[in-house]
Amino acid sequence: MSTYPNRNQAPGLGSTQTLNIREPESFKLDNSIPVYLLPANQQEATRLDIVFDAGTAYQSQKLQAGAVNKLLKEGTKTKTSYEITKTLDFYGAYLEPFSGKDKAGITLFGLHKYFDKLLPLLHEIISEAVFPEEEVRLFAERKKQEFSIQFQKVRYRASLEFNEMLFGSNTAYGQKLKETDFDVLNRDLIVEFYEKHYQPAGAYFLLGGKTSSELFIQLNDTLGKLPNGQKKTFSEPDIFWKEDNELQRYITKENALQSALRIGNVTLERSHPDYPKLYLLNTILGGYFGSRLMSSLREDKGYTYGIYSSVQNFKHGNSFTIATEVNAEHTVAALKEIEKQTNLLRTKKVSEDELRTVKNYLQGSFLRYFDGPFSLADQFLKSQSLGLHFEHYKEMLEKLMQLTPEEILESAGKYLDFKKMKVLVAGKTDGLK
Amino acid sequence: MIQFERFQLDNGLTVLVHQDLHTPMAAVNILYKVGARDEDPEKTGFAHLFEHLMFGGSINIPSYDNPLQQAGGENNAFTNNDFTNYYLTLPKNNLETAFWLESDRMLSLAFSKKSLKVQKQVVIEEFKQNYLNQPYGDVYLLLKPLVYKTHPYQWNTIGKEISHIEKATMSDVKSFYARYYNPNNAVMCVSGNVQPEKVFQQVENWFGSIPSGATLDRNYPAEPEQKENRTLLVERDVPQNAMYMAWHMPSRTDENYYTCDLISDLLSNGDSSRLFQRLVKEKQLFTDINAYITGDIDPGLFIISGKLNADVDFQTAEQEIDVELTELKEHWVEEEELQKVKNKLEANLVFSEISILGKAMSLSYFEMLSKAENINNEIEKYRSVSRENIREQAQKMFAEGKKNVLYYKAKQSS
């Protein structure tokens, strides 16, 4: 017999589950490139990530980093673009380029049983890419078209402009793409960047999912043969970002139904002792669906389909950003409400109840971020790119769990000052000061 | 191969459990068999609006999200033509919280006036953000009614127009809930680090007393056979001309469904595919092009969409696509090429079965279609498609008079 349950009360929560992460094992290939291992042999899929110091921060001309990254697989000394893609498709594999501000590289996803067929191809792509003129031209043309479509969206426009406001123009992090950049791109620029940055020195690999000792040997026989010692040197950028006085930028788009809003500033480095406090503040304000901004602007007022805040980590500077698209009619009211909610964190202590919710939510989120071989790999790559130990996530979670309402109030006073934040509006701008 | 156990409550709720001990998490997926095709033609967008209202508090629990977040959980939902799917993940030790929340909103909603008012606004913002406020956003609002004249697939899940959402009333909400949100109209799947016996016992406890609803008799008006090509030309403020071609195709449970899926992959899955190699790279008629199927339960659509290069006119672009389709109709595809798209499908299936949430969603979906066991036969079904099947299906699907084309013209800037 089933008993009618008590629906008025939540069932008790189970005991807290600990975050189970360890520094991954690693070994070195013959050419000294480290390979980190995150094995999960219960499944058939394998993933290999190859990471270089080749992000946009290192480029002397915009689009260089992204173009090299995307065009790597468009031809080698012995294979055409079509032959490469046909082989990848035949084995059901995906070769996905990735490129951020600091790092760039390529991820190979595939079935373990075909990896021996794929590694020689990957080796050739990394070491003997030729960047055919025709592919470069096509790439620039296509990307220019895409850009002009994206540029019409208030959301894209806002992100593009806000990145420049945050990090400052003419800095490594603050670069802003414009349509004419596509006309300047050429093969020489691409080859120059490739030769400098897609080199074994400073590179590392990550092998996740199904692994085997045969795979290690094959890896060494292919990518372990990338020549090291012939590295072309490159220097770090002069300025990653700089303070700028511009606090407001309004971009008017006639007849926009929605306005895109971006509010934020450059903020604490990850290694700063107060970083966990900022992280928690961000979560309360706009870091999850139950956040104050979402509750107010979406659930209470219906101004928007969604609003989030986030802390973004880069090696040389982090940013805090609130982002949303709101009904254009409510642009001014939405901005006011965001200001109000931000200030509230500086004037009133968060309740024990809300703090408990956020902590429990984060506890669950951390478990989720590290669940499954591929999520684990993503998190590891992130920590590695920031120069952090993998296990620091565990320490960070412990610190988050200990924070008190007083500490949070105090750090809001220090780090969440709306008056000092940069504000960008793209869309309907009349009525804004 | 995904292993699972099945259990049915007396009220008709079907429960599937898949155990995966490699994770610290549990996932719960609940699929209600109601989608946009069940809507009144004068009240479209309702199934999707309703999905939002499911988060506005239930009879005994004022907030859905808050207690779930307290339990470290995260959730979301989506609505399509055929069903509405709610899903969540949380630490395995807190699984019962999920049952408490989900069973209460299956029992009864709070039907809050404020929630209805606000969610109408939120959905209207979603409508604007995704369908009106961005280039090419209204394509499917235009294409669907061109292709479907009778069947409810003629409207999109977001609805035909904003006014339909604006005029939704509380009494609409209540009757929709009473009709569709019943245990006998749902499939639940629990996956992750869970014990099946314990899950069945807890599910019985929380869901067992929910009364079942009337058995639904569904009759969707069948789409009459298309006899003549149809076209529509619109002009919009966009950077490039684009075209969208659509043909009717078999239903999800028809054996030729798999053939159509493979045809779309031959044409455009991966950079080595025909349309990308020939029309984007070689002839440079398009900057991007795609072929895909909608995958609906009732007869769905086979779509080819592409953005045209600046100096290419619609006629040339369309002719070249027709050349590709004629080739499929007249020549056998090479065995190696067919092998390629099958291999890719197999890999994609393996990738989609990595996460516990992915597995829970797939199991629920196949249970809705017929039975969850079929998930393990999918690869076989694709493997058994022959070159003859491909050619025959192409001849049938792309026959004269079956084409629908939306020409989406960029306004000349003055």
Descriptive labels:
heterodimer; A: 433 residues; alpha+beta; Cytochrome Bc1 Complex, Chain A, domain 1; 2 domains; 15 helices; globular; B: 414 residues; 6-stranded mixed beta sheet; 42% helix
Account of the 3D structure:
The complex is a heterodimer of chains A (433) and B (414). Chain A is 42% helix and 18% strand. Chain A has 433 residues and is α+β, with helices and mostly antiparallel strands. Chain A folds into two domains: 25-225, Cytochrome Bc1 Complex, Chain A, domain 1, CATH 3.30.830.10; 248-427, Metalloenzyme, LuxS/M16 peptidase-like (Cytochrome Bc1 Complex, Chain A, domain 1). In chain A, a hairpin with a 5-residue loop joins β1 (25-28) and β2. The longest helix of chain A has 18 residues, at 133-150. Chain B folds into two domains: 5-207, Cytochrome Bc1 Complex, Chain A, domain 1, CATH 3.30.830.10; 230-410, 2-Layer Sandwich (Cytochrome Bc1 Complex, Chain A, domain 1), CATH 3.30.830.10. In chain B, β9 (286-293) and β10 form a beta hairpin. In chain B, α9 crosses α15. At the A-B interface, α2, β5, α4, α10 and β10 of A face α2, β5, α3, α4 and α8 of B.
Spell out the CATH superfamily of the largest domain in chain A: Metalloenzyme, LuxS/M16 peptidase-like
Greatest chain-chain contact: A-B, 75 and 79 residues
Number of helices of chain B: 15
Are there runs of chain A of 5+ residues with pLDDT below 50, and where?
A: none
Secondary-structure element string of chain A = EEEHHEEHHHHHEHEEHHEEHHHHHE
Tell me the CATH architecture of the largest domain in chain B: 2-Layer Sandwich
Mean of the pLDDT scores of chain B?
Answer: 96
Helix content of chain A: 40-55%
The largest pleated sheet of chain A is described as: 6 strands, mixed
What portion of the residues of chain A fall into strands of 2 or more residues?
A: 15-25%
